[in-house]
């Protein structure tokens, strides 16, 4: 394999999201968080540590005690991180209970925390590594430290359990290692914009294996456009007549289905 500096990844940014085990599962790394998942906010600068461990048993033969096979007897995948936003969502993850209407929460060390689904996105510019845990549980929490100059942190370790649907404990997508896919458009706002105005295009497949190469309004190239992330493009309307101006986004894989848009 040739040396390629463009394949060196750094976890510059990221998202840790939580949802019910019934929440819609993601299908790739370049779509927005599915319905039912909620961003848990900032994680401290240690980031997320993924650990995969195995316990093995060596089978020996009678002849000279030679090891003839190694079997896996136990396996576990876990994710450790420290949440640093104090919110209802982070407290629910840490304490395993909901915050009451009066702002209180009961600390019960005998409480078993609920099973939930998790999505962890590691972001390096247009490069996205997404981990999906369909059945996870907070099985360990760290100490609470209250000290001047130190953000209050909520250290959690999420254990990922085996899931028959995905055939394992977690599924990972590497955005730029997949097959190029045609973009899709979900919305274009605001409506009724005039030439020279900027609009926001929300959709999918705006970054990944291939980059967006063009944005058109009514068949005319946008005056300019910026791909903000995998799901968002900001485009400036070109000159043109008022009325219908369907929006199309293209990449090397092809063109999106036109999204209806009316311009001023």
Describe this protein with a few key phrases.
single chain, 264 residues, mainly beta, Immunoglobulin-like, 2 domains, 8-stranded antiparallel β-sheet, 1 helix, 45% strand
Overall description:
The protein is mainly β and 264 residues long. Helices cover 3% and strands 45% of the residues. It has 2 domains: 173 residues, Factor Xa Inhibitor (Irregular), CATH 4.10.410; 80 residues, Immunoglobulin-like (Sandwich). The protein is built from 1 helix and 18 strands. Strands 1, 2, 3, 4, 5, 6, 7 and 8 form an 8-stranded antiparallel β-sheet that branches. A hairpin with a 2-residue loop joins β13 and β14. The radius of gyration is 24 Å and the shape is globular.
Highest CATH level, the class of the largest domain: Few Secondary Structures
User: Residue share in helices?
Assistant: under 10%
Beta-strand content bin:
35-45%
How many domains?
2
Shape: globular
- Return Rg in Å: 24 Å
**What is the string of helix and strand elements?**
EEEEHEEEEEEEEEEEEEE
Work out the helix count: 1
Helix/strand/pairing class, anyone? mainly beta
DSSP strand count: 18
Tell me the CATH topology of the largest domain. Factor Xa Inhibitor
Q: Report mean pLDDT, rounded to a whole number.
A: 94
Low-confidence stretches: none
Q: What's the architecture of the largest domain in CATH terms?
A: Irregular
Please report the distance between the alpha carbons of the first and last residues: 53 Å
Q: How is the biggest beta sheet arranged?
A: 8 strands, antiparallel
């Amino acid at each position: 394999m040739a040396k390629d500096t463009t394949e060196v990844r750094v976890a510059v940014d990221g998202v840790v999201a939580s949802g019910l085990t019934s929440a819609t599962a993601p299908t790739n790394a370049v779509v927005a968080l599915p319905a039912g998942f909620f961003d848990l906010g900032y994680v401290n600068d240690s980031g997320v540590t993924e650990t995969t461990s195995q316990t093995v048993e060596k089978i020996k033969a009678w002849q000279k005690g030679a090891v003839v096979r190694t079997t896996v007897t136990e396996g576990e995948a876990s994710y450790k991180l420290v949440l640093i936003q104090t919110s209802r969502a982070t407290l629910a993850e840490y304490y395993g209970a909901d915050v009451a209407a009066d702002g209180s929460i009961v600390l019960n060390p005998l409480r078993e925390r609920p099973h939930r689904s998790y999505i962890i996105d590691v972001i390096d510019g247009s490069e996205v590594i997404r981990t999906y845990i369909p059945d996870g549980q907070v099985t360990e929490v760290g100490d609470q430290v209250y000290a001047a100059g130190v953000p209050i942190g909520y250290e959690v370790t999420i254990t990922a359990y085996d899931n028959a649907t995905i055939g394992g404990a977690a599924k990972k997508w590497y955005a730029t290692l997949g097959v190029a896919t045609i973009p899709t458009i979900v919305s274009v706002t605001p409506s009724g914009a005039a030439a020279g105005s900027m609009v926001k295009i929300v959709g999918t497949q705006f970054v990944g294996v291939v980059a967006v190469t063009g944005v058109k309004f009514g068949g005319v190239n946008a005056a300019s456009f910026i791909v903000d992330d995998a799901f968002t493009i900001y485009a400036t309307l070109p000159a043109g007549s008022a009325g219908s101006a369907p929006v199309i986004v293209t990449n090397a894989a092809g063109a999106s289905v036109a999204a209806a848009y009316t311009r001023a």
